[in-house]
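Weekly structure sync - notes
Attendees: PM, LS, DV (DV joined late)
Agenda: review two folding runs queued last week.

Item 1: First target. Sequence and structure tokens pasted below for the record.
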Amino acid sequence: MTRRCDVPSARESHDAPGSTLGERAAHALLAYREGRTDRLDAVVRETTPLLWATVRAQGVGHDEAADIVQNTWVQLVKHADRIEEPRAVLKWLLTTARRAAWDAVRNGRADAALRTDLPEDETRHAALPDATPSPDAQVLAKERDRILWAAFAKLSERCRELLHLVSLADRPDYRMISAAVGMPVGSIGATRGRCLAKLRTELDRMGGGAWI
């Protein structure tokens, strides 16, 4: 059952100063359920660059990324009545796009492995470098990741969301991040620095700071 008690009616204005992209997406979803698509169209235009950056950051090619982003919106329309928390629709979109990108990358690697065929000569039997990490390196990597994510989980939700969005692309679009988290563009860099400092403090406290 859809919970709408904490989200104003889609008929109320959602363009007031300070509204975030997540709030506008929530209003657009509610409006779409009422048969009005204009607000959803506006959110599609506004959010697509963020979805595009999310998918491309996973290593997906240009054409396949375009298909994934388009299918993400198709899935939203298909499941519009099943999303229980309208305020979570932006996170739902990002998660759906990211998971589709991961699947695309995995399938691409599997196809490439099947197509690989070394020539039938002495090079087929030549000793190739073993790219598999040694057991001790795997253990250290797992422990490093465990500590990193444990420290990350101790940050505020605002810090976690900001650091996640900044990490989506090599050159993050601060304008889109500003719209997503409701933070002035000029404050993003300084806030990011404070969040990273807090993460470093947690890592040092947990004994993982020397690994990054």
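Item 2: Second target, run right after the first with the same settings.
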Amino acid sequence: MQLFDRDGSRKYLTVAERARFLRAAEQAPREARTLCMTLAWSGCRLSEALALTADRVDLAGGVLVFATLKKRQDGIYRAVPVPPSLLEALDLVHGIREAQRRRGRGSAARLWPWSRMTGWRAVHAVMDAAGLSGPAASPKGLRHAFGVAAVSSGIPLNMVQKWLGHAQLSTTAIYADAVGAEEQDIARKMWG
């Protein structure tokens, strides 16, 4: 896995582009907005977000609990801390508290009962509204942006590995290869 495609184009959104994406998401329909926020703030895969159910939104703990879908076996979960604003939006739009009071605690209530293609289209509509294009303007670009932002913020690689659900630390280590403004921020710390 690399952060650049064969043509040398960046496959992740910069901090400024991610912020532009989130601002554009504020204007999107409510369900699309919460999906975009979830992808940007958790670093999850699109398929993992679409599989999220109300019982896996831990409002008290401040985390989203994702079934890690690439481990090739069921029952592997990871908790990812997310901002309170995302949890509030999920509760407002998807009725998390209400669903969790019902029998089954909302385990049958998928937040986005959409196909993968419908989710992909919703994210791309927001990318277009934000004026973003190219390889980085995708759900995967948001995942990579999360990894780069986490490493650039000084989050230990093993924690980023856990949050992203990587089996190997070497996969997570690519985010230490950040460039542009992110690399400048890292270098500034060294310069004093």
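Discussion on item 2: The first helix runs from residue 15 to 25.
Action: LS to circulate a short write-up before next sync.
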